[in-house]
Amino acid sequence: MLDKILLQSPIYLLLFARAFTLLMTLPLFSMRSTPRIAKVALAGYIACFILNTNDFSNYMSYLGPDGVTSMQFFLLLIGEALIGLIMGFFVTIIFSSFSSAGQFIAFQMGLGAASAYDSLSQVENPLMGQFFNLVAMLIFMQTNWFQKLFLKAFSSSIEALNAFSLVYARESIVKFLLKGLTNLFSDALIIALPIMGTLMLITLCTGLLTKAAPQMNLLSEGFPIMIIVSFYLIATLIPQLTNFFSRAFESGFAELQELFTQISGGIE
Questions:
Q1: 143-189 tens-digit pLDDT
Q2: 28 and 136 Cβ atoms separated by less than 8 Å
Q3: How far apart are CA 149 and CA 253, in angstroms?
Q4: Angle 175-76-259 (CA atoms, 0-180°, nearest 5)?
Q5: pLDDT bracket for residue 57 (50, 70, 90)
Q6: CA torsion angle for 117, 123, 126, 130 (degrees, to 10)?
Q7: For 145-212, what is the HEC assignment?
């Protein structure tokens, strides 16, 4: 194993750069609490596994006569790191839709001010956003999407993409990322719409009752009512939400696979 890595060290370095930058941008692995040595070891193991299962004849044609010391190899290494960043950024977009849905719900139910630092998304996030983000992460790990990301999507990206593909297919990649950002807000609204719509009806009814009977002061009682109803709706809808999370991951990886197929077909 070690002899093969040494014989194909340029290819191994390219694979390692892509795997390492992908891990650095993935949720959970991008956390500061995750040891850096663990990320390096996992990226090295993934690169070693891919090295034994794929054909890299297309890479050999791009390597200069000086091997790893050539400027062409250095630019190729930077391109591989950018590909890993793009893949990790796309997965982060999928998770951001769940976190954004939690933020929409938190603002509507009156918990928008209850925010704290979210170690998964690396930003200040309301508690409901952290909850949805954590549920999405558990589903991501439970349904083996992490293994599918590296054993299928990452392997397919090796066959379809290299640093020069970024130049040839830059328009397709930009459109793909913009479409992902659009799906972020649409998925977030789909997740939050049932709860937000119910809370809006509660607010409307409370306002009408307060207008009809000002002495009841129902507006001050509306906040605990909305919080209780929100928790009840979330507990009731959590099976449907988990199914939607799983379908979102499936459709996202299908779009990623379609992008790889389109780029490889366009280059050929």
A1: 777 777 777 777 777 777 777 777 777 777 788 878 878 888 888 88
A2: no
A3: 8
A4: 25
A5: low
A6: -80
A7: HHHHHHHHHHHHHHHHCCHHHHHHCHHHHHHHHHHHHHHHHHHHHHHHHHHHHHHHHHHHHHHHHHHH
Q: Give the CA dihedral 185, 188, 189, 190, nearest 10 degrees.
A: 120
Tokens 């040839």, residue located: 168
3 state DSSP class of 265: helix
Question: β-pairing, 123-126 with 115-118?
Answer: antiparallel
Residue with tokens 């794929």: 54
d(CA 96, CA 103): 10
Rounded to whole angstroms, the Cα distance separating 115 from 126 reads: 4
Residues 6 or more apart in contact with residue 30 via CB below 8 angstroms: 23, 24, 88, 122
Rounded CA-CA distance 57/48 in Å is 17
Nearest C-alpha neighbor of 14 from the set 173, 162, 166: 162
For residue 188, what are the contacts with CB-CB under 8 A and spacing of at least 6? 97, 98, 100, 101, 104
